[in-house]
Amino acid sequence: MGLWLLLHCWGTIALAIALFALWPNVLTFVLAVMVIGSRQLGLAILMHEAAHNALFKTRRWNELAGDWLCGRPILADLGAYRHYHLTHHRFTQTDKDPDLVLSSKFPTSRASLRRKFTRDLTGQTGIKQLLGQIAMSLQLAGDDDAIKAANSDFAQSFKAPRLWGALPVFFGIALLISLIGDWWWGLAFWLLPYLTWFQFVLRVRNIAEHGATEQSENPLQNVRTTRAGPLARLLVAPYWVNYHLEHHMVMHVPCWQLRRMHALLLKKGLGEQMRIAKGYGQALAEAGWRRA
């Protein structure tokens, strides 16, 4: 199943580019950027699965695929992410949760969310983060002790402290896309989605998962599951990432089994106790979109 998900993710990226190649116009261009950005999030999700050793049966394949086929293509570091993320699982929505600094900002105002989304969609967030990664990599160059410390810096999340190990993969993919099509395709169909739509859906996903949830150790209320239809799964929430409550309850359940786990929890009569949003619109509304 892990192999199928990887093939699906990269195949969807290829199909989005092929769609524009066959019918080049503004609509197919924008759709391709959005779909590819969502699949870049898909790669992050599959890296997350590998961090839990849930993408493949063996640790070796989780390490190889999670690093080279999922992490490096989006300038991420599997090892750094695993350390960060397991700490988040251990201390979810408590004072020791490294993600609390993100979720505690919600609910906020509609104006604040609009500013955040504007920065994401115009590339400001992506450029700022990329320049920050480059600066950090230059600062840490050759200093293994400093790199280990950076791996413990929760604020870096899954970003790669050793950026120079990921950059050749990232730009290699862009170069390959340009060689397949026109010279500008790599910039348009890999760098642009990374700097824009990927940043936007990454923020939406983060808000939906823990924004404006209960700050407690209650696993049914300190995290949110968000129902997602076909369009949301295509553009915002690939690979069952919306079933986040279920993932936190038993973090080693593979992502493709989370929908089944959700159904079992409802069958057990726990639905009224679970924090479930009817869609991403409701999740954002609870996080502040409906506020002035």
TrEMBL record:
One of its GO terms (biological process) is lipid biosynthetic process. GO terms for molecular function: oxidoreductase activity, acting on paired donors, with oxidation of a pair of donors resulting in the reduction of molecular oxygen to two molecules of water. Residues 27-266 form the Fatty acid desaturase domain. One of its GO terms (cellular component) is membrane. This is Fatty acid desaturase. It comes from Phaeobacter gallaeciensis. PANTHER family: DELTA(5) FATTY ACID DESATURASE C-RELATED, FATTY ACID DESATURASE 2. The chain crosses the membrane at residues 26-47, 163-181. It comes from the Bacteria. Keywords: Membrane, Transmembrane, Transmembrane helix.
